[in-house]
Write a structure and sequence with these properties.
Layout (H helix, E strand, L loop, with lengths): L6 E5 L18 H10 L4 E3 L8 H9 L4 E4 L1 E4 L6 H17 L4 E6 L21 H19 L4 E5 L9 H10 L5 E6 H7 L3 H8 L3 E6 L1 E2 L1 H10 L3 H7 L2 E2 L9 H8 L5 E5 L10 H16 L2
Parallel strand pairs: 1-2, 1-11, 2-3, 4-5, 5-6, 6-7, 7-8, 8-11
Antiparallel strand pairs: 9-10
Helix pairs in contact: 3-4, 7-10
Pathway: Polyol metabolism; myo-inositol degradation into acetyl-CoA; acetyl-CoA from myo-inositol: step 2/7
Catalytic activity: scyllo-inosose = 3D-3,5/4-trihydroxycyclohexane-1,2-dione + H2O
Organism: Bacillus salipaludis
Length: 298
């Protein structure tokens, strides 16, 4: 289905240890995490909070397991803080990823975000940007995109639950207002379905601008309970709203076919923040790897 060397398969460390809730997987070490990734058949990873920031140390640990760094999350505050503050942090982040060989930088606007707030209902308190904030966001992303281009890298914008860019309408607006040469899109199946969007519509509409893919599944019964009971994003994670491809309700077959027939070249990163006590990360990594092989041939 896929052309040779079209896709690299990675998995995010958030299934082993959670960045937003360190108590989830606090007992799992960095070495266990990357060893189990490799053992499950993945060739890359994004960067988690337990990963060493010493470049030589990290490179050595990954090389021993034949793993690469695909990217890493960057929290932007373009709507709420001076651009200089976000840019200074971004340059440090960019340079680290550049040294690790990554080609894309995952950017998500966290101004007014509720994704990290434990007791704020996800669906009723979602932030909505004003026109002034949209202007700040777009201008800021163009600036960050220019900084990335200095290293021949791209920023990929992560639409995300609990933020100002979550819905189809908001993604459409972001794509309309931004320069395609400076701002690309990250496609995340799980966040789109969680929000109530049609992932195939987004995929087909913006495929030429999609430069990074997160493969995330959801448990629809949990999502329904999150809406019904007014739970927060973090509570949804603890309840098990997310899971790996092949374990939830999303059929990835047409997504794989669509991407295989395109010019997309880059990473598929399995990502499913779960409580590792309830969902053994190695077991779920194996489950995801088997499902991807069955559905895509990768």
């Amino acid at each position: 289905m896929f052309k040779e060397n079209q896709i690299k398969l990675g998995i995010a460390p958030i299934g082993w240890t959670n960045d937003d809730m360190p108590e989830l997987g606090g007992e799992n070490t960095f070495e266990q995490c990357i060893s189990e990734m490799a053992l499950a058949g993945f060739s890359g990873s994004e960067v988690g909070n337990k990963y060493p920031r010493d470049i030589d140390q990290l490179k050595k640990a990954l090389a021993l397991r034949n793993l690469q760094i695909a990217s890493a999350w960057f929290s932007a505050f373009l709507t709420t803080k001076p651009l200089d503050e976000t840019a200074a942090d971004f340059i440090i982040h960019r340079d680290f990823l550049y040294e690790m060989g990554a080609k894309v930088i995952v950017v998500s606007e966290q101004g007014h975000s509720i994704q990290g707030l434990m007791d704020v209902p996800l669906f009723t308190n979602k932030p909505v940007f004003s026109e002034e904030e949209w202007t700040k966001l777009v201008d800021g992303l163009h600036y960050l995109g220019g900084l990335a281009a200095e290293k021949d890298m791209k920023i990929v914008y992560h639409h995300h639950m609990g933020t100002g860019v979550q819905t189809t309408e908001e993604i459409d607006k972001l794509m309309m207002l931004t320069d395609p040469t400076l701002v690309s899109l990250l496609f995340d199946s799980g966040h789109l379905v969680f929000s109530g969007e049609d992932p195939l519509t987004i995929l087909k509409k913006y495929l030429p601008r999609i430069k990074h893919v997160h493969l995330k599944d959801i448990r629809q019964d949990v999502v329904d309970r999150v809406k019904r009971n007014g739970l927060s994003f973090l509570q949804a994670v603890k309840e098990g709203a997310f899971t790996v491809p092949g374990d939830g309700g999303i059929d990835f077959s047409e997504m794989f076919t669509t991407i295989a027939g395109s010019d997309y070249q880059g990473w598929f990163v399995v990502e499913a923040e779960q409580d590792p006590v309830k969902a053994n990360p190695f077991e779920y990594a194996l489950k995801a790897r088997q499902y991807i092989k069955e559905k895509s041939g990768l």
